[in-house]
Amino acid sequence: MHSVALLTASYAKDIERFSLLSESIDTWLSGYTRHYVLVNDEDVPLFARFASDKRVIVPASNYLPKWLWALPPALQFLSKRRVWLSLLSSPVHGWHIQQILKIAGVLNAPEQRVCILDSDNLFFREFDVGQYAGAEKTPLFVTPKDIGADHPLHGLWLRTVDQLLGIKERSFPADDYVGNALVWDTGLNWVLALCRKKKFSEYLMYGHFVANSPAHLATHRVTEDSIAVSHWDDTPLDRPAIEAMMRAASPDQVALCIQSYSSTSVDDIRDVFRLSSRDRRSPSLSPEDMGDAVEFEVPAKTR
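Request: output the structure for the sequence above.
Response:
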């Protein structure tokens, strides 16, 4: 078995969601060495309370190049989003930085495998991530032929992937590698290349790089089965709908992702999963023990 780490890139506005993620990891997960949490430097004190023997809070500046610096919040009156400046590229925003941090964090992790967990993920069943991610072949999640040429986001991201990887011919529909709880195996500076492109997806880059490299593909186990049940659109979910998501989870699905842009109440999620309870491993946390709830249909992902 290969060593496995967890990695999350987060920031202050997602701290309540990250709190749920960390609680669920501490409750249900085993088989990993460390949980690396990458945050903006000024957010380190806010996240310090989550640090433990297995959870390390890492300042973003540890992994970002010196030529890329964050504009102080007091000077960001022209933009509602956090801005990073550079003399080598146009400004980039927090979403770009989080993707760059994920790649840099994986490249710098001493473990051979890294399971990437966004802040809006949550575990609700016991799960040995070491058995899942540390086996001989790395799991590579894919949704075959799911990206059309006219997709407003994924189509643009995929064209960036093709440019960066030198893929000359692209046929559509194309495979999609965006998902949750994904596992990664560990010329022009790659950070600069991404800053200049901007419209990119770290998950599509990894997936299509592996898919176009026979040597790397041979070390991966391609799967269409996600270990997470996900809510991808921007519709807020109420408590019955969250319960219905859990009921919709297959026996092999151990995690839940409700995208933060859906504006679903974190308090509702916390109440449904009862993570604040002392008796965290009670049967009531399991989907099988929930009351009747409306059926939940997983919408198409937009990320």
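The chain has one domain: 4-289.
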